[in-house]
Structure formats: structure tokens, C-alpha cells
Amino acid sequence: MLSSATISNSAYLNRKKKRLGDMLIEENVITSEQLDEALKKQKIEKKKLGTILIEMGFTKEKDIAVAIQKQLGLDFVVLAGLRIREDILRLISDSSILKKHVMMPFAFREDQSNTLYVAMSDPLDYIAQDDMAIITNMEIQPVVATMTDILATIDRYYGSAEAQAVAEQYTRERETQNKTEETVAEVDSNAPIVKLVRTIIEQAVRQRASDIHIEPLETRIRVRYRVDGVLLEIGSYPIDMLAAITTRVKIIGGMDIAEKRRPQDGRITQIVDRMEYDVRVSALPTVFGEKIVMRLTSKMTLSRDKKLLGFSDEELMKFDKMLANPHGIILVTGPTGSGKSTTLYTAVSELNTSEVNIITVEDPVEANIDGVNQVQVNPKADLTFASALRSILRQDPDIIMIGEIRDVETASIAVTASITGHLVVSTVHTNSAASTITRLVDMGIEPYLLADSVVGVIAQRLVRRLCHCKTCRKADTLEKQLLGIPDEEDITIYEPRGCTECNDTGYKGRIGVYEIMPVTNELKRKITKNASIEEIEETALLEGMQTLKMSAARYVLEGVTSIKELRKIVYANDEDVQKGRV
Fold it and tell me: Count of CB atoms within 10 A of residue 271's CB?
């Protein structure tokens, strides 16, 4: 029946009637009570048991994989760091079978060229192994891997081809059925344009993208992902697909598909690999058609433990001391995309207990936090930051989070609220901690009120982390000067190289760089006297503040990031070097 295709003898011999739940109990991953609860839910939702256990928070994907590996005596593989050979990839022409069974072939067995190693999230799925044996005409040796790792690898090697195949299918159907853009409103989940938009979002999540750009050019549609702050082109489609793509995005984003002349905003909730993502959509008319930008955020990313944000021990101690204040203003500052929202949400999550009433005013609400009252700004209904804040003060709040202080009215209410016994956390767009104080003074806030209300300012940026494939070299004279190191001292710094795990960029992930300025008594006196940015910063430096440049230089010396990333944060001029600010 299998013709010449066979499953490896060891696989047949190991086909013992082992059940996942029993294996996880044996490895102390879950309890029997948790298994019973999950099995009841599985009967209703008809999902795989592993998926149910993870969704219920009883265990993690990695723990399940390790337990299966131990119980079945199989190997465990991390695909992210491997480069899979072309001849292996050519064995599978259609990636749908790989996604269906969550499996990925990655290597030939050295001593048996007819044996194929296949990464599987469920090595007990023998039907999947049979299918793979038939397709490849080879013996299959299962190896354990996590589902997230497998799906990300499938996207890395087959994603572009899959999206192009969907695009070609849409073109064929449009030609044969004479479809118009209005017909893409259909809810059929298998419709080509529906699959294409879903695939674009799923691949973005698996490639760790923060934004998706769908851009109409003169003759084509360009799709780019922003990964670790840098835009990367990942696909290109015929320009005649633009209307269908934009219409589909507008439908799922709750936008007006008939309006094409004015900018629009929408919102999509999408579940990818068991995690819920909030997708903010912006449509903007351009010369060649509407450009779509989708910003991806997940609740888990925004409310992570503050220890994971990149604070040093000293910075963490200063941050904790700020949050311990019963009232006052804590300000987070930096340009767009510098991680301000993550820091704010982390602070709110830290303060979120049943004993306090927390209310936020945001534009837009980026993630829902359990137990926090969140207000969405709506200018059409005359619900601005200022008007919402006035109402909030009548709601008996203990802690108020303001998405952004944009005008003097909002700033005045925030200051008043902090002085009258509330803790206020907010953001301002300035370049440094010291300039935040002078910006609020320029807005029209009295210096003595600021001195009395502001308890601390955090300026921040994000730098890319070097991947483990980084290379080292000696720093030259200019680089030593930038790092504040004497020229006679030998210093090793690291540079990006590139591997499969980092998509040949040399970087993987980002980390925060901080400038934390607690407002001490001496700083209060300076602020009251309407001191300049330089005077405020000089005082803060004497009291131990580390500037953004100093914090980034520390990361360079530790091998966390590169000198190139330091230069992106700020250009250090001669005066900075002489004053020891770098």
C-alpha cells in the first residue's frame, strides 16, 4: 500500500499506546486533576490536548515537548538555529501538509541516507508520519520540537511561496469568475484573499514583526515587516490585488470599505499560535492607492515582568522607588517606537491590586488589563484627554495612567491630580529626562508646581540585541572616545555577523536603554528656580544619573549590542566627551 515508502522499524516498534496526558503526569508536568479538567474542555472545543493545557495555563509548550522527549526516548531539536538544505526543502512542494500536521523535515540521517529526520510537535501522530513517508518516499525518524518553532520555520522557508500561490489563485479566480472588489466581503475562510491577509499577519507574528506595511507602488504592491525596528521587504504582489486586500483588511478592521479618500483607523483581534494579538490598522490614501499599516501588540508583551525590560539593578531600584510613591507624576519619555507603552503598562501591571482603583485614558487602548478601568479617547464624542481626566477625578481613582500629555490643559489636570493625592503615570515626547521638565514649563506649567508634583522621569530608547553569531574585534581610537575609554586601553567590541536564527541580520530582539532621573530635593530647588536643561542634567549627573549614552555604552562593552546601535541613539560631540557624558 505504501509502495516503496516505509516508516522506520524503530518507529513501528515504539508504537506503544502511550497517551499524552499520562506522560505529562509521569513527568510531573501536570496533575491528574488538571488533566481531568482539560479533557472535559477538550470534549467541548475539539482541540488537541496539548493546546488545551497551554491555553488553561497548566503548562508551557517547552515543558510538554521535554516531557514527550523523555518518555519516548527521542531527540529534541531547536530549528531556529538550523539552516535546512535545499534538497530537503524540495522534497515537500506544498507546505499545507506541514502546517496540517505541524511537522518539518530538517536533515538526513548520516548513516542511512534514506532516513529523514522530521521535527514534530506530536511524535505520537503516526498518520502524519505515514503521510510524510508517502510524500518523500523515505523512512521517517521523528524528533521532538515545539509547535511555535516548527510553524516559524515553515514560514521562514515556505512563507513567500505560500503567499504567492494564494495570490496566483486569487488572480485565476478573478479572471474566471469576473470578481469585483465588493465580492471579497465574502466570509468564506478559504477564499484566496482571506487566506492571503491571514497569512501576512501570521507570518509577521512568527517573524517577530511589530508593524506590517502594505504599500501600493506604481506597478506592484510591496509588503514589508518592521522587525527589531528595521523594515524588511518580504513580498510583492500585482497592483490589481490592492483593492481586494484593502477591502478585506477594512472589513475585519471594522472600517468603511466605501471610503477611499480619507484616512481611517480600525482594529483587529487575531489569534496566532494560541496567543491573542491586537492589531491596530491605519489606512492612508496615497498617489497609487491606499496604504495599510498594521501595528501588532500582544497583551503578554505589554505586561511583562519589569526585570525583562533591560533595567540594570541600580535602575530597577530607582524605578521601584518611584512606583512606591503614593502620589506624584512619573513621566516616561522618548520618540515613537522607543518602548514607552511597554514601560507604562509594566508600571500599571505592577501597581494593579484589588486595593487600588486604576483608571487609564489612552488613544488608543493598546491592550486590555484585567482589573484596570481603561478609557478610549474619542474626539468625535468630545471625549479628549482633558475631558476624560476631569471625569476620572470624580471616579475616586488612586492611580491614573495618561497615554500622552499633549497640551497644557492635560498637563495642568495631571499636575493638579498628583498634588491632590493621586499617582499619575504618563508619557511626553522629548529627547532626554532633563528636557521633559523644561518642555512642561514651556507648555505653561508653573515651575514650583512641577517641582512639587514630578517624582521621576524615565527617558528611554530601544537598541537591537546582537545574535549569538556575533563576532569580536578591537575598538579603534574614535570608538574608544565614544565609549569614554582611554586610548591606551585595549577594548573588545562585538559586531553583527548573521545566521539562520537572526535571518542573517546579526541581531535578534531588542533591549531598553534608560536614563532615570528621580526628582531629589536638590533637583526640586533647581526646577523651582526655572533652571535650564544643562543645569538640571548637571545636577542629576552629580547625583548618579546615567545618561542614555552611558547606558548604551555599557551594553556595547558588555557585548549586548554594537557600536552602530549606540550611534543610532545619539551623536556624541566633543563637549559630551570632555564632560564625561559618554
Answer: 10
Residue with cell 465574502: 186
CA distance linking residue 428 with residue 439, whole number of Å: 9
Instruction: Give pLDDT tens digits for 420-468.
Output: 899 999 999 888 999 999 999 999 999 999 999 999 999 999 999 999 9
In this predicted model, what pLDDT tens digit does every residue of 164-214 receive, in sequence order? 777 777 777 766 665 554 454 455 566 788 888 998 999 899 888 999 999
Map residue 535 onto helix, strand or coil.
helix
Could you give the 3-state DSSP secondary structure of residue 430? coil
The Cα–Cα gap between 289 and 283 comes to: 10
Q: Please give the DSSP secondary-structure letter assigned to residue 476.
A: -
Tell me the C-alpha distance between 278 and 368, whole Å: 9
C-alpha dist (Å) from residue 254 to 189, 264, 280, 281, 309: 17, 10, 11, 10, 33
**Buried residues in 192-221 as b, exposed as e (16+ CB within 10 A):** bbbbbbbbbbbbbbbbbbbbbbbbbeeebb
CB neighbour class for 13 (10 Å; exposed up to 12, middle 13-18, buried from 19): exposed
pTM assigned to the model:
0.76
Query: Rounded mean pLDDT of 77-86?
Result: 85
Residue among 425, 278, 404 at smallest CA distance from 347: 425
Query: Concatenated DSSP letters for 295-362?
Result: EEEEHHHHT--GGGGT--HHHHHHHHHHHT-SSEEEEEE-STTSSHHHHHHHHHHHH--TTS-EEEEE
Fill in the DSSP letter of residue 467.
P
d(CA 318, CA 330): 12
3-class secondary structure, 566: helix
